[in-house]
Amino acid sequence: AMALCLKQVFNKDKTFRPRKKFEPGTQRFELYKKAQASLKSGLDLRAVVQLPPGESINDWIAVHVVDFFNRINLIYGTMSEYCTERSCPIMSGGLKYEYRWQDDSKYKKPTKLSAPQYMCMLMDWIEMLINNEDIFPTRIGVPFPKQFQQVCTKILTRLFRVFVHVYIHHFDSIINMGAEAHVNTCYKHFYYFIREFSLIDHRELEPL
């Protein structure tokens, strides 16, 4: 029943962005399957996030960044009808935290945006990065760039803000949709992962 309910809640048409797929036959596809299998086996999430013996840390991080992007996309896509210019004119996490958008193209300075605008910019920006072969190489034997983990830290820090906004401003909607257990599991998985590899500055975690 829970699975059926989640199928209705996380309806594919509502995904904010098309899902990024791992190509079968690649090493990363195998890693992704391994990660998904241990997740489904109901293992302790703290154990699930640990680097499997013999695997490369960058591959492991790459697989998780893409997977979290897909999942959080789905969560936000499901919430997006409740997150509007009117309900959320500022991208925030409660009264104390306001998130401004900055990138290397249109917004050179940190800029106030509404939550839906921020989410849109964020998902476009992450999608551009994970589809960039120079940053997320998919061919075997092609090395990751030196700044790979820094880029992932930036992506994950910003994805964390989606959880902050959704939990603080839209939690009643999550409960009404019966999606609370799913969102909580996704959040815990994300949290244990970033803690395992120290990928986010602990000050960023304060709102939750």
Automatic annotation (TrEMBL):
Give residues annotated as binding Zn(2+).
83, 88, 165, 170
Q: Name one GO molecular function term.
A: kinase activity
What domain of life?
Eukaryota
Output the Pfam families linked to this UniProt entry.
Mob1_phocein
- Provide this UniProt record's keywords sorted from A to Z: Kinase, Metal-binding, Transferase, Zinc
**Descriptive protein name:** MOB3C kinase
Name the species this protein comes from: Erithacus rubecula (European robin)
Its organism's taxonomic lineage begins at: Eukaryota, Metazoa, Chordata, Craniata, Vertebrata
